[in-house]
Amino acid sequence: VLQLADAGGEFRFEEYMASKVKLVNAALDSAVPLRHPVKIHEAMRYSLMAGGKRVRPILCLASCELVGGEEALALPAACAVEMIHTMSLIHDDLPCMDDDDLRRGRPTNHKVYGEDTAVLAGDALLSLAFQHVATRTGDVAPDRVLRAVAELGASVGSEGLVAGQIVDIASEGVDVDAAVLEYIHVHKTSKLLEAAVVCGAIVGGGGTEEVERVRKYARCVGLLFQVVDDILDVTRSTEELGKTAGKDLVSDKATYPKLMGLEKARDFAAELVGRAKAELACFDAERAAPLYALARYIALRHN
Ligand code: GRG
């Protein structure tokens, strides 16, 4: 329970998350029915319904409600963001990328369906994401839907996720500096989180200033997400190995703990929560509570 000093109330975060996860899962389930050709829809559903944390869609819904919109307005955009996220994971796991066998505790998509189908499942989820926002967003002015589609497109392509991935691939085995590390994370992680939050505010009816304010919040949260991921990589492998240094302090991969040390990385994460919170200060405290709590959740998460 998060105490809401300014609002004189409290916010029940776990209940909030559980109800939003349920809503998002049901919407995703009906957005991708098991229809002909069965194999591709099965492969799409295998990864989409595999039980991710649903942080991005929930950020999208919370941002819509922050600016006074009904959550239903943002549900198609929220689903689209999770479809894009899932497709990026499917492609990231492929043998030509990270070559991973496990994702979300289960065999990766290509391990189950083969590489050819996994590539197509990713492609199909990506195009469905845009189709879904364009055709299912109800009661929102067309120019707002168009702006949301443009935000999503920018977050995915060669100035978004793809840019982060290509620079990440090029940095393998190379000593990268803080600027390159930040570039990779901003593009691989923050851009889609930013699109989720910004799209929520756009379809929720937010004004220009509100949209730009939540964009700044999202940038802090995106970076925070990655710093925490890096810290978890170190602490998890430290626990597993019973050693004083985790694998990412000694591997080739550039991480924040490797670059600045574990303690400074933790301080940086705390600073980012503070910055994210400050961006929400101009909004009604009760409406801002979910986004504030989500920033804290991302900072304190264990997986
Ligand atoms: C987008 C066209 C297109 C291609 C993909 C492979 C690739 C280009 C980009 C890689 C993107 C990637 C895998 C980024 C990592 C993002 C990240 C932090 C994933 C973990 O997110 P969580 O913790 O996972 O939210 P869950 O499982 O909870 O959803």
TrEMBL record:
It comes from the Eukaryota. One of its GO terms (molecular function) is prenyltransferase activity. Its cofactor is Mg(2+). Coiled coil: none annotated. Keywords: Isoprene biosynthesis, Magnesium, Metal-binding, Transferase. InterPro entries: Isoprenoid_synthase_dom_sf, Polyprenyl_synt, Polyprenyl_synt_CS, Prenyl_diphosphate_synthase. Pathway: Isoprenoid biosynthesis. One of its GO terms (cellular component) is cytoplasm. GO terms for biological process: isoprenoid biosynthetic process. Belongs to the FPP/GGPP synthase family. This is Geranylgeranyl diphosphate synthase. It comes from Aristolochia fimbriata.
